[in-house]
Design goal:
This protein has about 575 residues and is α/β, with parallel strands linked by helices. Among the domains are: about 1-85 and about 535-578, Urease, subunit C, domain 1 (Roll); about 110-235, Diaminopimelate Epimerase, Chain A, domain 1. The chain is built from 21 helices and 26 strands. The protein has an eight-stranded parallel β-sheet with strand order 8-17-18-19-20-21-22-23. Helix 3 crosses helix 8. It is globular and about 80 Å long.
Length: about 575
């Protein structure tokens, strides 16, 4: 019998060797398990939220769950046994909404997410520019002005102007993406390359922010970002295909490692172009995807998109690593960048009700094509106006197809600010609310500045009301907008404790069992995969997260200290802490 006290590399080798032996035909394959976990608290997340002591795994599947005594019968001469020593075992986390390649990319560029003020970002920029050749682009991501401790004196629309970046990097174009992904900050060199001048009009669904003299400050909201990114992409297109491929492979590796380290075994990628999907399919064929991906095709209303729908569909197969059966559209922007589409103007920008990034007519035509070709539709909607409009649109599409919506499992991605009269419509229509628990506590301190206190209380993150009215909640982090930590998002979901220590309307929090379901079986259902994953049951995939503490029972104060000790994917140990 092999115990966890063995070197983890030795244990991993034994487990994976046993699996290969079984696949090749072992005389023990029909009797014993390859891997047994015993002596822990196993939250199965089955229909009855059962608790067990151990699990037996053969190949990539669970063959038994029960007491330590019951599981011991599956231990044979080659079985690897991990004594859990009371640790908490649960289904592997399913990241319900993130951006996989962007996560990898964020690990290759300047990380601005920990900067506490503008001065710190300027310092990071100065250090980075020292290592660049003239003309070389500098990329960064993660800044958020509402999270800074100090603000500079000169600001426009609550954001600094770019003079200091111009001084530091006169010969290097800069693009710094906002944490939300819905705005970018650039220097004058980048503006010049994009030919943005005082006469350049705002693009549809975007804004070039200007000062009182009409000068562009460097802040580009929503679709205005494309003006500079297009020039940047042209520059990147000059590098060799070999280097591009190497960078993309590295992004997959980095994103996979980070996800597995956080107990994530399946990742819902919220919007990827067809070329990247083709690349991911190639990696899957070569057995090089580090975890399971459920990918949404980025929906654009053009002939190429519609012409490629049938050929891009990839329905789940046994032990699959890439599923493509959903489409992502985007109605509005983010609240932090004043891009969320609201029923009433912003409290701090009363000239605006937000931005519409993709027309309702475009989204409706994509919805019709989705149903015709066997796809799910998932639409980004943050503001209360955006949520109402997309629910209206979904209802029209369902009526056209004589359905209440349950069979299609259409989703609203984010569903952050919902008018009380629209909350019951999610459950009534069978529309999934795909939320991000961590956004609530991260954004909570500054949301009232955008919406006012009364509107914030009535509309913001109404999880309790959604659940009580019959809606299914899926959960995620929106990584790299936030860190890919399901445990942090779980904690936010059950406590609603903001970064300043205060509670964000705690009457709307989830229970512990609701939150764990939102990160496992609910996300599996939201991807039509509830019979393969999302709970620990005999016959399902052995995708498992082992945690240091019981997140169903420990105090709220201890939740932030919980660690992922081990991640098991398809019966193989793919991560172990320490």
């Amino acid at each position: 019998m092999v115990r966890q006290t063995l070197n983890i590399c030795t244990l991993l080798l034994m487990v994976n060797t046993n699996i290969l032996a079984r696949e090749g035909g072992s005389k023990f394959s029909d009797t014993f398990a390859d891997l047994v976990l015993t002596g822990g608290t196993v939250a199965t997340v089955d229909q009855g939220m059962s608790i067990a002591e151990g699990i037996a795994i053969r190949g990539s599947r669970i063959v038994a769950i029960g007491t330590a005594s019951e599981i011991s019968r599956f231990v044979g001469p080659t079985t690897a046994v991990i004594d859990l020593e009371g640790k908490f075992v649960m289904p592997g986390f399913i990241e319900g909404h993130g951006h996989f390649m962007s996560l990898g990319r964020s690990l290759q560029i300047l990380d601005l997410s920990e900067a506490e003020d503008w001065d710190e970002i300027v310092s990071q920029t100065a250090l980075a520019v020292d290592s660049l050749e003239p003309g070389q682009w500098l990329y960064g991501r993660g800044w958020h002005q509402d999270k800074w401790k100090n603000l500079p004196e000169k600001m426009v629309d609550g954001v600094p102007t770019n003079e200091r970046l111009n001084e530091i990097a006169p010969e290097n174009p800069i693009i710094f993406g906002h944490a939300s992904g819905h705005a970018s900050f650039v220097n004058d060199y980048a503006l010049e390359l994009a030919e943005i001048n005082p006469f350049t009009p705002d693009p549809l669904g975007g804004e070039i922010v200007r000062d009182s003299a009409g000068r562009a400050t460097g802040l580009l909201r929503e679709t205005a970002q494309r003006l500079v990114r297009r020039v940047s992409e042209e520059s990147q297109s000059k590098i060799s295909e070999e280097l591009k491929l190497s960078q993309m492979i590295d992004q997959v590796r980095l994103a996979g490692e980070m996800a597995l380290r956080n107990g994530v075994t399946t990742f819902h990628d919220a919007g990827t172009d067809l070329a990247t999907i083709k690349f991911l399919k190639r990696l899957e064929d070569e057995g090089k995807l580090p975890l399971r991906l459920y990918v949404m095709i980025r929906g654009v209303n053009d002939a190429e998109f519609f012409g490629n729908l049938k050929g891009s569909l990839a329905l789940p197969e046994p032990d699959d690593f890439l599923v493509v059966r959903s489409i992502k559209t985007q109605l509005d922007g983010a609240l932090g960048a004043h891009g969320a589409w609201l029923l009433e103007p912003y409290e701090d920008l009363n000239s605006s009700e937000g931005l519409v990034l993709q027309t309702l007519s475009d989204i409706e035509s994509i919805a019709d094509a989705a149903i015709e070709n066997g796809y799910q539709l998932n639409t980004h909607a943050i503001g209360d106006r955006a949520n109402r409009e997309i629910l209206d649109l979904y209802e029209r599409v369902f009526k056209k197809n004589s359905s209440t919506g349950e069979e299609f499992r259409f989703r609203v991605e984010h569903a952050q600010h919902v008018h009380p009269s629209d909350v019951p419509r999610f459950g009534a229509l069978g529309v999934i609310a795909s939320v991000q628990g961590i956004h609530c506590v991260s954004d909570g301190p500054w949301i009232p500045s955008r919406l006012g206190e009364m509107r914030t209380r009535r509309t913001s993150y109404p999880w309790r009301d959604l659940i009580d009215s019959g809606a299914l909640i899926a959960n995620g982090t929106d990584v790299p907008v936030e860190k890919i930590s399901p445990l942090a998002s779980f904690t936010a979901s059950v406590t609603r404790t903001m970064n300043n220590g205060e509670l964000f309307y705690p009457a709307q929090k989830m229970s512990r069992s609701e939150a764990i379901k939102s990160y496992t079986i609910n996300n599996a259902f939201a991807a039509f995969e509830e019979f393969e994953k999302g709970s620990l049951e005999v016959g399902k995939l052995a995708d498992i997260a082992i945690l240091s503490d019981n997140i169903l029972e420990i105090s709220d104060e201890r939740l932030p200290t919980v660690k992922v000790d081990m991640t098991i994917l398809g019966g193989r140990i793919v991560y172990s802490r320490g």
